[in-house]
Amino acid sequence: MKRWDRYSLESLAQGLEDPRGPIFISHKGQANLEGVRLLNAGVDTVRQLYRGKPSLPQFDQIISVYQQGRGATIDLYGHTWAVAPGSSQSGFRYRLQNNDLGVIVLLYARHQKAENIGTHVKIELSPHFIQERAPDACQRFMDVIASCLLDHFEPAGCAVHLALDVQGWEPPRDFMDRFVTRSKRVSRLNAIDNLEITSGEIAVQYGYGQSYLFGTAGALQCAIYNKTKEAHHRDKLHYWEGIWRDAVTDDLAPAYDPDQDVWRIEMRFHQSVLAEYARGVPCNVDTGEILDEAHGFTRFTDTVPHLTGIWRSALQSYRLDACRNLIDPAWQRFQDDPRFYALEPHFLYKRARKAPGLGNEKNVCLAFGNLISIYARQGFQAQQAIDYLKASGMWEDLEHYYRRRGIGKGEFRQLVEQKLIERRLLGKAA
Q1: What does each C-alpha distance from 17 to 9, 128, 392, 428, 429 come to in angstroms?
Q2: What's the distance, Cα to Cα, between the start and end of the chain in Å?
Q3: Would you tell me the crossing angle of helices 382-390 and 409-425 to the nearest 10 degrees?
Q4: How far lies 124's CA from each of 95, 130, 139, in Å?
């Protein structure tokens, strides 16, 4: 699969590529993705499984409260929990739930006896619980609960949902024609009034543009949906806007526009999928650290150093292509730029750009010359080159530079055409 070369105005002035630059160039043309803003990349859901023998006194206390009927509550682990039945799909008989805390505890596996060792506890963490705590704190909290419910407990696997929130992009009208997936299950529903997101499904359309779900809950799932609409429907918009407002662009301006919808790309890794990654001996994309196969991804904290790597892998399995054998430039950015729990480099890495205008002529000229060499290498014609220059982010400075030297539109076109010919004929194409 061919990829686009990436540049920034700063790198173009030096004749170099920028692996995080917003300007994408390939034989198919040029795309400036400066308007595509990455607002948040994080863990949206954690589901931790524990294996052990149930602590019968603790189980009996919970079951006794449950038998009091609907609305029963119990105080455990320093919090108050609603006690309710587990759904048939969950595989557990009972559920402890605290929405303010953002935690659900499922206990007593349906297909195993309480006196036998088995996977009797599953703990689910919500986005706001995860966002407010470090991974180690999340793991300690879950381990404490499991140690109270199970004798001789041990982690038995973990499922993780990774989410990227973006503005300035939405699925194009020909999305399904260009989207590559091996999944046999694709959901795309239109015009429904009620939206429910579970581990198994998400697919909805609001007027225009689709929301999609690929794959099944027991494997690697890809969900793409309008997060603004979904958060508004679930009365969580205020919470998410508080997170999105922290995002900034490269020039330190606020990245979030409250008048524009946010779209989410979410990859959901079932515990069996993470176990397969562990057997594949993945390595951390930034440090090169190799995962010990014997260690595996049994706990949430085991996955943390590898989340960026498995994200990139997932966006290769579910991929939007520009054309045959060429990835879509926006999808390439979604694949490369996010970092999950990584301090350096960070997908919101802040750069202080040099202000455009007077005093910047040298960099503008260098960037212009290097772009022309790249365009010549890609076989662009003069009008194509001018159109792409206008979309490069440097057009205003370039126009001002040549206008001050008495070069008008016609002369500039001849200049571009001449430079393209020189580079092709004299071997100066980059």
Answers
A1: 10, 38, 14, 17, 15
A2: 22
A3: 120
A4: 11, 10, 11
Rounded to whole angstroms, what are the CA distances from 116 to 62, 111, 112, 122, 213?
18, 11, 7, 16, 37
pLDDT band at 155 (very low <50, low <70, confident <90, very high): very high
Instruction: Return the H-helix or E-strand segment holding 178.
Output: helix 175-178
Q: How far is CA 390 from CA 30, 257, 370, in A?
A: 11, 24, 15
Asked whether 168 and 161 are in contact (CB, 8 A), the reply is no
Parallel, antiparallel or unpaired: strands 118-125 and 150-167 = unpaired
Query: Half-sphere exposure (CA, 13 Å, Cβ side) for 260?
Result: 16
Rounded to an integer, the average pLDDT of 217-240 is 92
DSSP 304: G
Q: For position 194, what pLDDT does the model report?
A: 39
Residue 271, pLDDT > 80, answer yes
Ramachandran angles phi, psi of 214, nearest 5° = -120, 135
CB 223 within 8 A of CB 202: yes
| Residue 230: pLDDT over 50 | yes
Question: CB within 8 A of 350, min separation 6: which ones?
Answer: 248, 250, 252
Beta carbons within 8 Å of 44's beta carbon, 6+ residues apart: 127, 130, 161, 162, 163, 266
- Rounded-to-integer distance, Cα 23 and Cα 5, Å: 8
Query: Taking a C-beta distance cutoff of 8 angstroms, is the pair 122, 49 a contact?
Result: yes
DSSP letter, residue 256: -
Measured distance CA(89)–CA(85) in Å, rounded: 12
Token representation of residue 394: 């440097």
pLDDT value for 204 = 40
Amino acid identity, residue 179?
F
Model confidence at 342, in pLDDT bands (50, 70, 90)?
A: low
The dihedral through the CA atoms of 254, 256, 260, 265 has a sign that is positive
Structure pTM?
Answer: 0.78
Sorting pLDDT into bands at 50, 70 and 90, what band is 196? Answer: very low
CA proximity to 302, closest of 269, 335, 334: 269
Half-sphere exposure of 429 (CA within 13 A, CB side): 13
Burial group, residue 96, by CB count within 10 angstroms (0-12, 13-18, 19+): buried
Taking only the tens place, the pLDDT of each residue in 50-102 is: 999 999 899 899 999 989 888 889 999 889 999 999 887 888 999 999 999 99
